[in-house]
Amino acid sequence: MPHSLSSEGTLEEDSVLTDAPPAIPTASDVEDKGDPGSSPGAAKDHVRAAVKLEDMFDDEEDEEFPSSGVTDGAAQSSPPLTGPPQIALSANHSDSETMLAFYQRLFPFRYLFQWLNHSMKPSTDFGHREFAFTLQNDAYLRYQSFPTSDLLRKDILRLNPSRFEIGPVYTANPRDRKTLRKSTAFRPLAKELVFDIDLTDYDEIRTCCDKANICHKCWSFITMAIKVIDVALRDDFGFEHIMWVYSGRRGAHAWISDKRARNMDDQRRKAVAGYLEVIKGGAQSGKKVNVKRPLHPHVARSLEILKEHFQQDILERQDPWARPEKAERLLELLPDKALNDALRKKWDAVPGRPSVSKWADIDALAKAGVSKNLDRKALLEAKQDIVLEYTYPRLDVEVSKKQIHLLKSPFVVHPGTGRVCVPIDTRRADRFDPLGVPTVTELLAEIDSWDTEDKKPKPEDAKKLQDYEKTSLKPYVDYFRIHVGSLLKAEQSVKREREDEDPMEF
Asked: What's the whole-model pTM score?
């Protein structure tokens, strides 16, 4: 059967969630894209909930991940269905029918709720969270909020956005912001610490692609960035709940969900971003790396991680100094004029000399004594800085500095490529293939293929699979589920410790 839209059922896992009519967005909620200006907020008590970890994930079928069987009845807030829409494999990955089928059958709303709510029971961590929708007509709907995952799902099925973004938790419900007497009563309270890495920031050093284009060669820049930033966040700051997400085309986002990270004000976020920022200056600036000696432990560790990548991914695959004007850039970063002149003369005599050889020429000519006044320590430091300039992560630090910054949700579909924004398993970062990430049309076709095969007789006790389990999206959803379970377990431990340490005194 073609991948029709499943009818609504009862959401057993979220049966503890209180239901309420979804708020209807007003015209005043439709705003231009951009970050709102607000001051960072102070702490506020959140709703507590004690739930056993083994009860967090119920594998029984629910309306979020329907099986292909049609159930009786439909939720009132769901879009009216006139019949199963036929979506061909060649369908546009961003058309409304394709997106509606994706949201209804594949998007992991329940795990998204648990991830953002930090508990099984609804709290202001989710209820006061801002969501922003980009609709099919490119209208941008901001300050949306939902008490439960069920209501978020119902509104997304009603509005059918091409994508949506996640903002901070506010001191009040974002939908009520205009009813508050004082504007200062509405301010950001908490949000995950986030980082954004985009391959367009590498255009001056990558030779294989530019702009929105990517290939396996230049994706190695993202792999390097993930390795360096992830270990720094864990080892230097002690964060544990870090999830990297593919942006759907040419980059990756890091979401840090530790409570300490979520509660950081803008000054602390700026400090963390500054700690991790080594590459400074635009494409037209001069030397971009100016680190102090002796090297900070983070920088020294990063160099060790990046050395192997520099040899293989930069010198061999990117060949960054093959062209004469690019080779001049390399010479600008070396400290000795006599050495530079000797290198230039040698390279001019052998046009097309590869970057691997040019890099080796630096040490060879230095040892040959072409410069009588060569400072070998300065040369070593210059070479270290060059390695960093061509390998170290190029962060969009503005994304990390403010709580109010909105960031694309995991598991949405990139409208340009049709690829799903899936988590990246950092343990296998080298094996992640951005060009192999499934598109929405491929996933829906996989459901059709499975259902065609599934019509064969099976034992009565055979497990009924949810639709995502029939597709190549399954390992990514499973990874997300495990990540969320670890976060919820840590949140419960913190709550128990706080309750044990602060008994009531009389």
From this structure: 0.82
